[in-house]
Amino acid sequence: MAVEVKVIKKPGRTVAEQLYVPEIAKGLGFAMGRFFKNTFGPKSKKEIATVRYPEEKIEYPERFRGIHRLTQRTDGSPRCVACLCCSTACPAQCIYIEPAEYEPGDPRFGYERYPSVFVIDELRCIFCGYCVEACPCDAIRMDTGMHMPPSTRREHFLYDKETLLSIPGRDGTYETANMRHEPGDPTHPGIDRERGH
Amino acid sequence: MTTTFLVVSALVKVAVVLLITVGAFAPVLIWAERRQSAMIQDRLGPSRAAIVLPDGAVTVIDRARAPLKGLAAMTGVVALLTLLVLSYIAIRGSNPLPIATSVLAKTLAGTGIAFVLLRIGYGVHTTIVRNGGRIMLIGLLHPLADAIKFIFKEDFVPPKSDKLLFSAGPIIALIPAIAAFAVIPFASTLHWDHLDQVLPRTGAIAGPAIPMQIASINVGILFIFAIASTGIIGAAVSGYASDNKYSLLGGIRAASQMVSYEVVLGLTLVPAFMVYASLRLEDMALWQHEHFWGIFIPPLTLAAINFFVAAIAETKRVPFDLPEGESELVGGYLTEYSGMKFGMFFMGEFVEVVSLAAIASVLFFGGWDVPYLYRDGFEFTFPFVAGSFSVPLVHWLVVAIQFFFFLFKIIVLIWLQLMIRWSLPRFRYDQLMSLCWKGLLPVSLLNIFVVGAFILSGWLDQWVAFFERIF
Questions:
Q1: E-assigned strands of chain A?
Q2: For the segment B386-424, what is each residue's pLDDT rounded down to a tens digit?
Q3: How does strand B373-374 pair with strand A95-101?
Q4: In chain B, what residues touch A39 (CB-CB under 8 Å)?
């Protein structure tokens, strides 16, 4: 059986390429064109990729995960019910929560807890967003659009409850668009004290 | 002409040359190289070094903007009106010379300059306010910041190095680069007694004549070769003295590369001596002033390209920067250097770039020659059209125009070198050597014979006559 051999011609160089000079001129022309376009060309034609950072900023994408915030209820208290889902889900173990009971007599007493201490170590955080995913109450969010303000002291990166509550979302509000069903509220989906067990 | 006058004029010339090369061109080149490369690569490049103004100053600057804008507009309107009146008079057919010295012309010049300055001032103020009170000067402060950094950096000397040679290396590399400027003419002869007169185009002028050149020596271009080859010692010595194998290899590479290209550099210029029939750079510039630029003589065009290639290799810059070859040799002979010593090497490299551009412009691009500018002013003639249009100029203005046009030529050639640096990849060492010995050397030897034939057969004279008839 005859084997068909397809001879592929090795791509050679043309005389112009061997002479260097025309190719060099071509390369120079390309670089010069680029230079003139980016330096003196009209603004719409420029292809400068860098920005002068503090003066010019590029908008982060909508789902950018910035530093955390704790959302508030309408009365300004944290929505967090201290269920510890976020600190459990956190792969970096950077969330520390101390849950506490409401005072007896409070409508939420016996149904929800609240965090008496809520600290996020932003230096350990890997900004994976698992805490936001885990939260059943939409209480922790990363929609601030901010990154950490720099500091020279480690303590400054331990964000406590008050700090986290004081950071607004990108829309400037401290609450979320998701409705909060307070115990005693007719919209409350589950059992509550009025409807009985 | 007294001795004092000679000494003072020589010192002034030295100061001007030093100021231009080391003071102005080298720092601006550091800036230009970075910003230009950035622009080619779609980046902005370093532009953030700034002098921060106090808050109060920003308010003052902000308040000054409106009056500046108003004044600029006013002077602009006045200048425009004067221009209209002047052109009306000119069209009506009056003799142009009285107009040129009239009150109107002076008003136009004054308001025009004032308008430009005020407008620039307004722009600068606006930029400062926009940048929040930081003066950035489009990144020109970076070389300054670099210099401050270099000066305050630790001056590290490797413990087992040859201390004396290690310190001498950068100096040996820098001094010859600057010394090459001694023989470069940067304008035509200045006639001190006739500064504000319109001189006749030809003929001898009485009174002291100052050649605009530091040293007019009869070996001229050979002096530059001699001095430039001293630069080899700087690189080789610093490579040896660093007590580092990479440095040593870099030094060896630098030495062999520069020695090889020194030969080509000399041979490429032989055709130029033959055509101009002189070794003095001022005579070469004068020949081109009287005829036309050397680049337009075909064999010299080839010589110019060869010279440019060899000269870039001589300055050890991309694509011939194998002595530094950071992918193989860390930093070559620069590896152990830091601080101001490193800075001196780079200063030397940039000054070499400037001197190379200056030599190339004197040899092939007419030196200080400005097209259509003669000793008595501009005279524009047009090919195939009879008649001419002339603007007489006073002597100091003629020399100033020549000087600045020479600087402009240098800038263009430097720009070309920087473009080459950012466009071409580095050669392999054997390619570098074969380009020199098998490529450029035979071509330039052949070129000498071609030019010889060109001159002996009388074609050169015919070409010169033909070219002068066209232009």
A1: 69-70, 95-101, 113-121, 140-141, 158-159
A2: 666 777 777 888 888 888 898 899 888 888 888 888 888
A3: unpaired
A4: 39
Does A33 contact chain B (CB < 8 Å)? no
How many Å apart are CA B180 and CA B167, to the nearest integer?
22
Residue A101's DSSP bridge partners are A113
Residue B111 CA to its chain's centroid (Å): 32
Secondary structure (3-state) at B387: strand
CB contacts < 8 A (A, B): 42
ipTM reported for the complex, 2 dp:
0.72
Buried b (16+ CB within 10 A) or exposed e, A59-70: eeeeeebbbbbb
Residue B349 to residue B55: CA distance in whole angstroms: 41
Please indicate if any CB of chain A lies within 8 Å of the CB of B40.
Answer: yes
- Under an 8 A CB cutoff, do A28 and B423 touch? yes
Query: How many angstroms separate the CA atoms of A8 and A121, rounded?
Result: 63
What is the C-alpha separation between B303 and A192, in angstroms, rounded? Answer: 97
Residue type, B278: S
Element at B135 (helix H, strand E): strand B134-135
Given CB atoms, is B424 within the 8 Å cutoff of chain A? Answer: yes
Q: What pLDDT sits at residue B87?
A: 75
Distance from C-alpha of B187 to C-alpha of B268, rounded to nearest angstrom: 25
How many CB atoms sit inside 10 A of residue B4's CB? 8
Q: Do residues B225 and B318 touch, judged by C-beta distance below 8 A?
A: no
> B395: part of which helix (H) or strand (E)?
helix B395-423
The per-residue b/e assignment along A22-55, b for 16 or more CB within 10 angstroms, e otherwise, is eeeeebbeebbebbebbeeeeeeeeeeeeeeeee
Instruction: Quickly tell me which residue has 């889902």 as its tokens.
Output: A85
Chain A: nearest CA to B121, how far in angstroms?
A: 21
Q: Which amino acid is at A119?
A: V
DSSP string, B12-43: HHHHHHHIIIIIIIHHHHHHHHHHHHHHHTT-
Query: What 3-state class would DSSP assign to B100?
Result: helix
In this prediction, residue B167 has a pLDDT band, given cuts at 50, 70 and 90, of: confident
CA B35 to chain centroid, in Å, comes to 18
User: In the prediction, which pLDDT does A91 show?
Assistant: 94
Query: SS in 3 state form for B201-260?
Result: CCCCCCCCEECCCCCCCCCCHHHHHHHHHHHHHHHHHHHHHCCCHHHHHHHHHHHHHHHH
CA pseudo-torsion sign B126, B131, B132, B137: negative
H/E segment holding residue B386: strand B385-392
Which residues is B379 bridged to in the sheet? B390
Three-class SS of residue A158? Answer: strand
Q: How far is residue B366's CA from residue B294's CA, in Å, rounded to a whole number?
A: 7
Chain B contact for A39, CB < 8 A? yes
